[in-house]
Sequence to fold (446 residues):
Amino acid sequence: MSTCSASQHGILERIANYIDEKTFFTALVSITFFVLFLFLYILHAYTFFGKIRIKDCATPTAPFGNLSDVIFHNDSWYMFLRKHYNRLRRKKLEYGGLYLFFKPSMLISDQALIERLILYQKENDEIFDNLISKDVIQNALEKMDPIFEECNQLLTREPYGHIFYKFFLNTSELLFGFIVDEKYLQNSIKEITSSSFKKYFSIAYSCFNNKNPYFYVKASIQRELESRKENDIKQNDILQNLSKVDSTAIENLSEIFIENIFYSTLSTILCLYELSQDDTIQEELVGEIRRLFAKEGKMQFEYLDRLPYMDAVVKESLRKWPPVPVEVIKNEQDIEGLPKNKNILYLLSIYGIQNHQDNFVDPEQYDPDRFLEDNVKETLFLPFGIGPHREIDRRLTTLNIKLAIISILSMYKVTIKSGYHLELDKTKMYIQPKNMPPLHFEFINH
Fold:
């Protein structure tokens, strides 16, 4: 005891030799007050839900709140929220509190509350409704034959993931009306989809949101707009349909362009993965495609509405593997049944909603027939979330998947290596396989 005291006294003496007593005392008081302030701040922040009588989903830990496992990649963002959504449903709770760092957020599990949020969001998405028209799609389809041919020729020679990415980049450039450097686009997608501290911090605190991922796409749009204006050019594409051209519209179009390519590529891979698991489903789909095109010939836009089984297959893929597995909503308007505090974020586990047994029978089973029966509630099928881009994302991604599937299944049977088990990547914000499924494309002799 005396040895320890003497040692401590010696340390204080050595500090005193370098710092005068007044400075030392001031520093000690400052540190004490800082630690006390930090403790009180954490206590105040992490008792937020207790004060308004909302049950926490889990106990938070400073400084990450409830995100420790997600940030350190012990769990994925979408799976983490799906687990808590399932627990809330099991306990019959309408919602539960979560902390994104120190930001209070509410995970909504009650379907009536979710429907109110959807209704509010619908009032704010009309700006994008007219961007994609039948004429725009048909105009692009008439120019796509070389893209289809290149994709089919390369499928057995190069990694299919890159081929699909190039396919959707090329089709998107036709639909949107501008060209983007592939290298910069890949960097943008990588930054947007990565699961990182910076990414989650910007979700919690939007003032730190990074717009750099869209810089190169925005620059491409600006160049194309200037060229059209200078040369008095009009095209039949999405860019031409922009009703209002300003920095916000260009940024939104940049986001939609990147989302379209990323969602289409990933959703097509997961759809083909499911088809490779079930010959019966694949054969029925191939039969529907062949019957239509044997009768009608070359692809036309209206033919896509005459493929009901194709529509069901795509919807079932989007249900099981939603491109937007989590929706984060700012509390900007009073919603009946939810707290009126504007500091709260609302979270929806789309992945949880679409894979819960109360919402879909045998949710883990891939069953396109559920969408043929026309009894799927619209507010339970939200693969693109409920944000302002959801309708154009749905239309573009669905169109792209259908075009890719028609092109591939017209020439190939899709199989998969025996014994393969799909493992999801915990280091990504979106649902992605950790490794590409070992799909094999077997040429069909007609």
Notes: The two ends are 91 Å apart (CA to CA).
